[in-house]
Amino acid sequence: MAEPLSLLAKSLACRRGGRMIFDGLSFSVAAGEALIVTGRNGAGKSSLLRLIAGLLRIEAGALTFQGGDPERSIGEQAHYLGHSDALKSALSVEENLAFWTAWLGGGGAPREALATVGLDQLAALPAAYLSAGQKRRLSIARLIAAKRPLWLLDEPTSALDTASQAMLLDLMRSHLSGGGIIVAATHLPLGLEGARALKLERAA
Question: Domain 6-199 falls in which CATH fold?
């Protein structure tokens, strides 16, 4: 039987630009759980997500993904949804999602993902013509077009209207019910029942 998934951090430290962002940070998140990371600007919320995704170097401590694929890094088993929507303006909506699906190796169906986020009718439209909320929904479509067990979400409701926030909440609940893990940095409540909280303070 496969080992259940869990993300474990022990005494993590992150340094950027010569400044210690956080130090001695420990937490654990198990399959089916969400960890909501809060804190003031500059406390290191985005840095923590980028560190987990492998985009920043760990200054000290250890980060392990138990039950995952031992042949792949944590970042290769995670979706990182950052502040930038990472879209090619000249490519169509469907071409953007097809690129990311192929790159991430999810083997999913882009058209079905676009329908889920309400963008299937705009599949042929260049991404340059999308509104901020539509671009965010296209980025969210990556989460379901390419299956990965760990979702790292940085202010995921940014630019989303009420209906789109409800759609995202349904997707997050579905991911958790399927045994996935979510670590989300946010200033706003996400509505995830039973989510655990991690408040970051600025390092001295």
Answer: Rossmann fold (3.40.50)
